[in-house]
Specification:
2 domains; Alpha/beta knot; binds adenine; alpha/beta
């Protein structure tokens, strides 16, 4: 699959793009492409944003700049891009990202539109197929949210995570029926009096599986009670 991220700050993705599972995804033929709105702006002085009509604080990313970037990259009218891929605006006003949405996105090519400042001009609604939030709080821009979406999606692709069992049994996965993952421990078996549960050292696989199922249920019940 292709994930194209449109942003004013492509350098923000350097660390993420260098992570081993992202480079593995690239080796498998998937692509994470970074597109800078500024490289395609039709305005002078590489302008990309403007003050809001009606007044108020901050700057708004211009719709003509977003449209020009989409048309330069995809070579189709900007409102046709969503016909061939999911075009996702990252915004706190969007549908909240969850595991099911990540799985849905994994079946498509993606174009992720990051806003900055006061976001993107509302007319971006004419260009997108989805508006997605990563949680009920406001970030300074869409870049962190785009990385969250890209990562949740890339993990769903076959071969990207070296041990497929870790994806099948992780929190929210269908195999856990949407439950949270059981707790994990590693060496040392005891540290400053804090012990790893005996059952995990027992070598009894059936008992371990039962314990993990119980723990997973308990973690899920506790989280649901808190929310
Ligand atoms: N941009 C700013 N805040 C955001 C959020 N919570 N989710 C997605 N994009 C955002």
């Amino acid at each position: 699959m292709k994930i194209d991220v449109f942003t004013l700050f492509p350098e923000a993705f350097a660390w993420y793009a260098s992570q081993v599972h992202v480079t593995r995804a690239a080796e498998l033929g998937h692509e994470l492409r970074l597109c800078n709105y500024r490289d395609h702006t039709p305005l002078t002085h590489q302008q990309v944003d403007d003050t809001p009509y009606g007044g108020g604080a901050g700057m708004v990313v211009r719709i003509d700049v977003v449209a020009a970037a989409l048309e330069a990259v995809y070579d189709v009218p900007c409102d046709a891009v969503r016909g061939e891929r999911r075009v996702v605006e990252l915004t706190p006003k969007g549908r909240q990202l969850d595991d099911a949405l990540a799985a849905e996105f994994a079946a498509h090519d993606l174009c992720l539109l990051c806003g900055r400042y006061e976001g993107i001009d509302e007319r971006v609604a004419n260009l997108v197929s989805d508006r997605v939030s990563i949680g009920p709080y406001v970030l300074s821009g869409g870049e962190i949210a785009a990385m969250a979406v890209a990562d949740a999606v890339l993990r769903k692709l076959e071969g990207v995570i070296s041990n497929p069992e870790s994806v099948v049994a992780e929190s929210f996965a269908p195999d856990l029926e949407g439950a949270l993952e059981y707790p994990q421990y590693t060496r040392p078996a005891e540290f400053r009096g804090w012990k790893v549960p005996d059952v995990l050292l027992s070598g009894d696989h059936a008992k371990v599986a039962r314990w993990r199922a119980e723990q997973s249920q308990r973690a899920t019940d506790m989280t649901r009670r808190r929310s």
